[in-house]
Amino acid sequence: MTRYKLLTAIVLFFATISLSAQNYEDIIRYSQPNYMGTARSMAMGGAFGSLGGDFSALGINPAGIAVYRISEFTFTPSLIFNSTESNFEGNMMKDNKTSFSLNQVGYVGTYRPMREVSKGVVSTHFGVGYNRNNNFNYKSMASSFELGTSMTDMFRTNAYGLDPGFFDEEYPNEWDVYDYKTGLAYGTFLIDKDGTDGDGKQTYSSFLETGDVVDQNRLIEKNGYAGELSLTGGVNISHILLLGASLNFHSLNYEQRSYYLEQFSNSNPYNERTFKHFSVEDRLNVSGNGISLKLGAIVKPLENLRIGAAYHSPTWYKIEEDYETILNVDFFNPVPEINNDKTGLNYVGEYDYQLNTPEKLIGSISYIIGKKAILSVDYEHINYGSGKFKSSSNNINEINDFNFKNNDIKRVLTSSNNIRAGVEFRLNDYFSLRGGYSLQGSPYNKAPKDFEITSVSGGLGYRNKNYFIDLAYRNSSYDINYYNYFWTDSSIGTPPQTKVESTDHYATLTLGWKF
Fold first, then answer.
1. What is 425-472 written as a DSSP string?
2. What sign does the dihedral 257-205-3-11 (CA atoms) show?
3. pLDDT of residue 118
4. pLDDT beneath 50, residues of the chain
């Protein structure tokens, strides 16, 4: 049997193994909002669903465009600093990443009748511009030493029961359940067949023995963004009812690099086939384009009270992925089959599919205290379990696989209730102080704190007749828990978990002109 037939198997197997690249984490990544927008909106916690009059508000409730009295152009750059602290079996490590982004750029035009009226259609509005909705920049490092479990335990348990010929293309009809990383481990001699058990099923060995320990390190780095180009229209009816709608063209770009290194502890005696160390490098590049609709209304039952409601349709994305996994092994002794102490294989794939994000419902209320202060609160409901994958082809295996994943999404993810609150105090005719708070509930059904995002913010604004300048700072924090590897065989113990505390610091500046 020639192990390197696996390279050919990888190419042929691509059509089905790539299906396993999608999971509920993609739904969260491309659905969970992180409204960035203008500095004024950011400083007030993004609670602009009933306030309007700000370009970021159009992305929350398009009826906010009808609050404008004159035309306006705004431009918002932002500096983002991500810091992480990981806890891997008691070993603490810190890392950070800095990035620069364009939060928004937009124009709103206001049009009034030739003769100003106070009843009926008071004004119409049109806006075009870009809002960034999410930031994917992240970096963390985790290490731990003398651990009693190994990623090779996952490989050998995944391979259990498979005939070795499976890795040599003898069972192509079963490739849809094949784990390609296990194939890479087998092809690089990291695991090997080890006879059969009492049930006659094939077993595999990783050549680690009872009492062996290993050191593990993992680096994860992410880059990217999600944003939307919006065409928004609105109408002001009698200064009481404001209506708006937008057609939104979404784009996303996401890159992830993960490097895992496992090293056999040099203080231990080793089997003649034991690895010295091995590495698994994963590279993922994702790009996508989508479209969505937003509808909104704001009612002013009292002069100083505003109540808003908005509906966001799902975003219908078309996603393109390309990815690569590289596994390299260095052994203490040459492997007899190839008389070499180093082996390596890689798997390369690309894949197209469709993704529908969950729809959103937003309710808002705000109160304006004369010319002195503004209080505003938004409530947002998102059912992450309604997100789904869809096939871009008529491949029955692909359709069945996505049906399975969509059922998994419903099982793992749940509804999230998000709260945003903000306040603005006018110090005088020119300067304002702002503050805000937001809480995004966890999208997970059984992990109520994972990806629960808490943000606090503040800012300062200067405005005169023709232009304005706003500054804002926001601190957003959330926790992530993950495993480097996992298995369902409880007899070999529980794999170690890494816990990461992540914090994003945003410094934002908005420049605006009125005309």
1. EE-SSSEEEEEEEEEE--SBSS-TTBT-EEEEEEEEEEE-SSEEEEEE
2. negative
3. 77
4. 1-20, 170-177
The secondary structure of 394-407, three-state, reads CCHHHHHHHHHHHH
CA 422, 428, 429, 433 torsion-angle sign: negative
Angstrom distances, CA of residue 200 to CA of 193, 194, 196, 298, 468: 13, 12, 5, 69, 76
pLDDT value of position 71: 93
Query: Which residues are bridge partners to 140 per DSSP?
Result: 220
CB neighbours of residue 178 within 10 Å = 21
Q: C-alpha dihedral over 292, 297, 298, 301, to 10 degrees?
A: -160
Would you state the pLDDT for residue 197?
84
The continuous run of DSSP H or E covering 9 comes out as helix 5-17
If DSSP codes are grouped into helix, strand and coil, which group holds residue 489?
A: coil
Instruction: State pLDDT tens for residues 286-317.
Output: 999 999 999 999 999 998 999 999 999 999 99
Asked if residue 483 lies in contact with residue 499, where contact means CB atoms within 8 angstroms, the answer is no
What's the token pair of residue 253? 């770009």
For 3-6, the CB contacts below 8 A with 24+ separation are 3/167, 3/186, 3/187, 3/188, 3/189, 3/337, 4/187, 4/345, 5/167, 5/168, 5/169, 6/167, 6/168, 6/183, 6/184, 6/186, 6/187, 6/345
Query: Which residues are paired to 129 by β-bridges?
Result: 106, 230
98: nearest Cα among 77, 76, 78, 82: 82
Read off the DSSP letter of residue 59.
H
| Percentage with pLDDT > 70 across the chain | 93
The token duo for 170 is: 């003898």
Structural tokens at position 81? 């600093």
The SS3 call for residue 96 is strand
Question: How do residues 201-245 score in pLDDT, each as one tens digit?
Answer: 889 998 888 888 999 999 999 999 999 999 999 999 999 999 999
The confidence score (pLDDT) of residue 392 equals 82
What's the pLDDT at 114?
65
